[in-house]
Amino acid sequence: MAVHEKITIAKAINASLRASMEADPKVLVMGEDVGKLGGVFRVTDGLQKDFGEDRVIDTPLAESGIVGTAIGLALRGYRPVVEIQFDGFVFPAYDQIVTQLAKMHARALGKVKVPVVIRIPYAGGIGAVEHHSESPEALFAHVAGLKCVTPSNASDAYWMLQQAIAGDDPVIYFEPKRRYHDKSRLDTEAIPDPLHTARIARSGSDLTLAAYGPMVKVCQDVANVAAEEGKSIEVVDLRSLSPIDFDTVQASVERTGRLVLVHEAPVFLGMGAEIAARITERCFYHLEAPVLRVGGFHAPYPPSRLEDEYLPGLDRVLDAVDRALAY
Fold first, then answer.
1. Which cofactor does it need (predicted)?
2. CB 3.0 to 4.6 Å from 56: which of 48, 96, 207, 289, for a disulfide?
3. Catalytic residue ranges
């Protein structure tokens, strides 16, 4: 596979898994329905057929057992890639992830490595039922010992997953499920950006919009609308949630003087809170307005008919942009 004009995020992840498995026989894929079915989103389609049931493993419906088994395999030299079928299903495994996976390297004074990647389709916008549309990223980014990343396009989906698998640290790889079928250019011969760097998705001079995962597209749409009104908006795709590339955000804010942070997860104690605090400390004398945040409400994710009211959309982000520019 060489250069594609356009490819979906789902197919890019599939290609990334395939490339990692071809490069290293110790890479395993495991999870509920990942084999014969190819995953509920068909992201792992065809992998079991090509690599066999010993490397693409259909597991019982037991998230704690899946992650616990992956930890054991990692300790024996394998590189397991675990799929959690939906974001809200990860919580039975939360103890294994936080108490064991995140701690083992430090507990062993660096002598033990646990190269486990946990893929989590996250966030909403697909009209699903309860526990299928949650955004738990802040819960994992808070935990020392875990790295957390999330792509917003096919190229990042392809390269960031391979980088996560090749590393020796546990990585939570959040996949924006409502963007699975969004297409963008993928160059499989390119030199990828480092895993934990942010990127400037669109240059601008009046205000910085920083987002990640599913909200990057929303922010790009906002920037397009704002441009029609004569406003120049810079869009920063954070890409990595732990660690966060504060330097790129800081450099952008020093140019624009304003920052609006956008994510689907509730605003209360969300990723935006940490970024807002850090950038306020770093850029106090550059800021022309308070750092503003746009996100979900501090409430359980609603039924699908109310999704459009819950999710930050064009109008809510534009309102925050207008408020910041009004200072």
1. thiamine diphosphate
2. 48
3. 132
Residue 73 to residues 17, 27, 82, Cα–Cα distance (Å)? 18, 10, 11
Structural domains of the chain sorted by starting position, each given as residue range(s) with its CATH number in brackets? 4-187 (3.40.50.970), 199-326 (3.40.50.920)
Give the model's pLDDT for residue 4. Answer: 64
Structure confidence by residue, pLDDT tens digits, 71-93: 999 999 999 999 999 999 999 99
Max Cα distance, the chain (Å): 60
Six token digits for residue 111? 């002598």
Contacts of 109 (CB under 8 A, 6+ apart): none
- Dist CA 253 CA 265 (whole Å): 23
Q: How many other β-carbons are positioned within 10 Å of the β-carbon of residue 31?
A: 24
On the 0-12 / 13-18 / 19+ scale of CB atoms within 10 A, 22 is exposed
Q: What is the pLDDT of residues 284-322, one digit of tens each?
A: 999 999 999 999 999 999 999 999 999 999 999 999 999
Please, is 150 exposed, middle or buried when counting C-beta atoms within 10 Å of its C-beta (0-12, 13-18, 19+)?
A: buried
